[in-house]
Amino acid sequence: MRVLGIDCGTECTGYGVVEIDRNHRLTCIQFGGIRLSRQVDLPQRLATIFDKLCQIIRDHHPDRVAIEDVFYSINVKSALKLGQVRGVAMLAASSHKVLVAEYAPLTIKSAVVGYGKAEKQQVQLMVARLLQLEHIPEPADAADALAIAICDLHTASSLMRQAAGS
After folding, report:
1. What is the pLDDT of residue 72?
2. What sign results for the dihedral spanned by CA atoms 124, 19, 82, 75?
3. 166: part of which helix (H) or strand (E)?
4. In the prediction, which pLDDT does 76 show?
5. For the purposes of burial, counting CB atoms within 10 Å of the CB of 25, is it exposed (0-12), middle (13-18) or buried (19 or more)?
6. 159 pLDDT exceeds 80?
7. For the whole prediction, is pTM greater than 0.85?
8. Beta-bridge partner residues of 16
């Protein structure tokens, strides 16, 4: 199974493609960040995110796309912009007939580190370890996207094992 994890952001949207084999080994296929300029208006940034995510989906053919669920923010304007990026990510996936899964930040951290309130640096270190990478993925948004993909793969793998046992 192959999953594209997306860490939505208005300045940098991270992405990571991770695969799991029959022996439950994780492999990092690709990761990076879609960097966006504040000088460009929001509709154009959203179009750039959509185009680049569509290209990644066409290049890597993920079985699923996983994104972080909505979180609560004090800054309403930032939360709205982030919601728009999430919508664009969902549209990119659904326009390619790829299922979308959403995960709460605590769920992602628990799946990767084993502790829902883990620090960002702990998550990044564990992502590098689980994927046997020599360095922590950069930008940080890419490491977060890989964590989201790992969370989805662990969740899907657990559900398949439960279904097989029933």
Report:
1. 63
2. negative
3. none
4. 83
5. exposed
6. no
7. yes
8. 5, 31
Alpha-carbon distances of 68 from 38, 95, 139, rounded to whole Å: 23, 19, 17
Rounded-to-integer distance, Cα 91 and Cα 84, Å = 10
Q: Given this model, what pLDDT does residue 162 score?
A: 57
Entry field: residues in the chain: 166
Residue type, 54: C
For 137, list phi and psi in degrees, rounded to 5.
-60, 135
Range of the domain at 93: 2-165
pLDDT of 156 reads: 78
Total domains present in the chain: 1
Q: What is the per-residue pLDDT across 76-113, written as a single tens digit (0 to 9) for each?
A: 888 888 899 999 999 999 999 999 999 999 999 999 99
String of DSSP letters for 9-76: -SSEEEEEEEEE-TT--EEEEEEEEEE--TTS-HHHHHHHHHHHHHHHHHHH--SEEEEEPP---S-H
Residues with a catalytic annotation lie at: 7, 68, 141
